[in-house]
Amino acid sequence: MKNIKINNLTIGQNHPPFIIAEMSGNHNQSLERALEIVDAAAEAGAHALKLQTYTADTMTIDIAEGEFFISDKNSLWYGKSLYQLYEEAHTPWEWHEPIYTRARERGMVPLSTPFDETAVDFLEQLDNAIYKIASFENTDIPLIKKVAATGKPMIISTGMATLEELEQSVAAAREAGCQDLVLLKCTSTYPASPENTNIRTIPDIRERFHCHAGLSDHTMGIGTAVASVALGATVIEKHFTLRRADGGVDSTFSMEPHEMRMLVDETQKAHQSLGDVRYGPTDREKASLVYRRSLYFVADMRAGETITPDNMRAIRPGLGLSPRYYESLLGKKVLKDVKRGTAVSAELVDGLQDAE
Question: Residue 2 falls within a domain, yes or no?
């Protein structure tokens, strides 16, 4: 499949993973902090800075009871209404432009997740370069069509979606004009556990949907993300904050700057290590061949003496015949006097002049 070009960056199998730092609500309703997060993400090496574009009113209605109240005691957001949560977590729309400007100044791609059609129209005014569809909206076909119609690249998280639902969403995106698509394997729990992440799905996504595949990672640490590179992930998204101790709606499962730097560095190394299918020494290994084992005479011998385990061994360095000749040489005679420490060669052994 073809690479996806975003400004001066490329998403593709032959390129290091495209790392997205997700700010989400970690700005804690401070523009100053939001801009600090942008700077920290840039300094950590992230390629993109992602926002979420919504208001509490575009997400839900202001009711604080029943199904509009988060009553699951295992939830990070237990005790809030949906409206309260989104009011606290949303990024004010007037902040988008300064955040986008700062990200561009720092060499990153700014992008966002729109949650309704008005957000798409707003982001188009900011020349948003690539759109993300969140897992909870991956069945919102009208929203997917609206984004696809922009002609911009799209990222869709697959959290919770069945195969049938994903097929419908991908078909809708492509029919509406999306040419460049990335699907991210995602587990929509916060945080997610590694054993519930199933990253073996990544190559299946790529082959089944003929698109780039990656990971929206809610696990703690970088192990899952690094492993995903070996399975072909070309995009990795992680929530990002300055300090988890500062609190915030997503802070507990967000990366700190030193962890983001580690993620960038280690996923690049993982990508570099993939290489090609090959056997035999690499160019840099050839110098090490001398340290292999090979056959050496380990005792002084006179011409005509018989080779035995007492006078020939496989030792380092590797300048003699290969150890694979060991058994065939036992019982043969040497053709001339040899000193202890002489590498075994074909011309020294009777009947072995044709050995290689």
Answer: no
Nearest one of 136, 191, 142, 141 to 160, comparing CA atoms: 136
- Domain end, chosen from 254, 274, 294, is at 274
Collect all residues with Cβ–Cβ distance below 8 Å to 230 and sequence separation of at least 6: 270, 274
Number of domains in the chain: 2
Q: Are 345 and 295 in contact (CB under 8 A)?
A: no
Q: Look at residue 356 in the predicted model and tell me its pLDDT.
A: 47
pLDDT at 85: 85
Residue-level pLDDT at 63: 92
Asked if 54 contacts 115 with a C-beta cutoff of 8 angstroms, the reply is: yes
**Token output for 308:** 């035995």
Residue 93 per-residue DSSP state: H
For residue 108, give the DSSP letter: P
CA atoms lying within 13 Å on the CB side of residue 34:
28
Instruction: Say if residue 201 is in the same domain as residue 310.
Output: no
Residues of the chain with pLDDT under 50: 355-356
Residues 222, 239: contact at Cβ < 8 Å?
Answer: no
Residues 137, 244: one domain? Answer: yes
Q: Alpha-carbon distance 219 to 11, whole Å?
A: 23
pLDDT score, position 73: 74
Burial of 104 (0-12, 13-18, 19+ CB in 10 A): middle
281 occurs within a structural domain: no
Three-state SS letters, 279-331: CCCCCCCHHHHHHCCEEEECCCECCCCECCCCCEEEECCCCCCCHHHHHHHCC
User: Does an H or E element contain 215, and which?
Assistant: strand 212-217
The per-residue pLDDT for 353 is 62
Its pTM stands at 0.88
Say if residues 49 and 98 touch (Cβ distance below 8 Å). no
List, as one string, the DSSP characters of 163-198: HHHHHHHHHHHHHTT--SEEEEEE--SSSPPGGGT-
- d(CA 112, CA 101) in angstroms, rounded, equals 14
Cβ-contact 20, 12 below 8 angstroms: no
